[in-house]
Specification:
The chain is an alpha+beta fold and 371 residues long. It is 39% helix and 19% strand.
Length: 371
């Protein structure tokens, strides 16, 4: 069974409530106006893509990364953007969504086409693209993942202690108040709260107000509820394929039969995961709420996004030297000004063995170091 056949079989296991591959994708409306935040996010994404490209090309002696994803410096509101966007939409329906990068074996690299084939019409490079060993979709996140995880772990521990301490206060100081038949169920709730159950516990805060002690215990229950809400928030940074992209990535794989991967670039590390593994993860309902969640992404027009715990992926780079950043002024039509941030430089230090493993570069390919 070749790569595409494996992916096709996996799509049959994905719940249709999440992605229905038998339904045509919804056509996207053309954006009408860009914001400073949108352009900054685009610049960050371009930097992340360039970071991965340079890391591969400066490290490998046998493989070459080439820019492939459809992109343009135009933004919504500028002349020519509508035509570019419509062409992009048409291409999605024809060949699927181009990954940002293609990885070629050095022997298959076409120096005449160079390191950027993103502007070449797809029908002129079809056979060339099929020679790629991998397509990589690069996503970026404005976080330091190590700092985030350390902070979230400390926060969870803090609110766990708060919830458990307040539970004991209620049981020791207000048990008599709760022993009334109408309030007995709250004793059962408290006995059910443990360190292991806090992440699934839920209850309605009582509305008692007929005595000072009832008001006091009501406030204590509210504090437990607040602590539980903090504990139950997603506590991991994620690799973030958009639900709407799953179909067009599959379409691209169907067209070219080239393995596809997502690389999530943080400002201190890079994690990678195969599209095949993404489908396996989201096909198992038991993984939801544990390894992945499905959320509306407020930073991306509230588009539904699958958020997979980055630690489910493979660390591609364990260290990154941060880029230089600077402010830029952009004048739009009618004199509208946008100010955004650009990113330059930075270095990702690849974990070559992990990169070889995730891309399934086998022994015997290339020189003795196989990369």
């Amino acid at each position: 069974m070749n790569y595409y056949d494996r992916i096709r079989e996996l799509t049959k296991s994905v719940p249709v409530t999440l992605v229905d591959f038998n339904v045509e994708r919804d056509k996207a409306r053309t954006p009408t106006q860009a914001s400073s935040n949108f352009i900054t996010n685009k610049e960050q994404g371009d930097w992340a893509e360039n970071l991965v490209t340079r890391a591969i090309n400066e490290t490998s002696t046998n493989f070459i990364a080439v820019k492939y994803g459809k992109s343009d410096d135009l933004v919504a509101g500028e002349d020519g953007f509508d035509d570019f966007y419509q062409e992009f939409q048409n291409e999605l329906d024809t060949i699927g969504k181009r990954p940002d990068l293609l990885i070629f074996h050095k022997n298959d690299f076409d120096s005449n086409l160079g390191f950027d084939i993103s502007q070449i019409p797809h029908n002129q490079i079809t056979e060339y693209v099929r020679k790629a060993v991998a397509g990589i979709e690069v996503r970026s996140s404005a976080f330091l993942i190590d700092r985030y995880e350390m902070t979230m772990q400390a926060k969870t521990e803090r609110f766990t202690q708060i919830a458990l301490q307040i539970k004991e206060i209620i049981l020791s100081d207000f048990l008599d108040v709760l022993q009334h038949p109408s309030r007995q169920s709250y004793i059962d709730i408290l006995h059910g709260i443990t360190e292991k159950t806090l992440n699934i516990t839920d209850f309605r805060v009582p509305s008692w107000s007929s005595s000072d002690r009832l008001i006091q215990v009501k406030d204590l229950f509210r504090q437990i509820k607040t602590a539980i809400k903090e504990i139950q928030k997603r506590d991991y940074l994620s690799i973030t394929p958009k639900v709407e992209d799953i179909k067009v990535v599959y379409k691209w794989i169907e067209t070219f039969n080239v393995p596809h991967y997502y690389f999530q670039v943080f400002f201190d590390k890079v994690y990678g995961i195969s599209f095949e593994q993404i489908l396996k993860i989201i096909s198992d309902p038991d993984n939801e709420g544990v390894i992945f969640s499905v959320e509306a992404d407020t930073k991306n027009q509230n588009k539904t996004t699958i958020k997979i715990n980055s630690k489910s992926g493979t660390p591609i780079a364990s260290k990154i030297d941060e880029p230089i950043h600077e402010s830029v002024r952009k004048e739009m039509d009618r004199g509208r000004l946008l100010f955004y941030v650009t990113f330059k430089g930075g270095t990702a230090y690849l974990d070559v063995e992990n990169l070889k493993n995730i891309l399934e570069i086998k022994m015997g390919e290339g020189s003795p170091n196989n990369f």
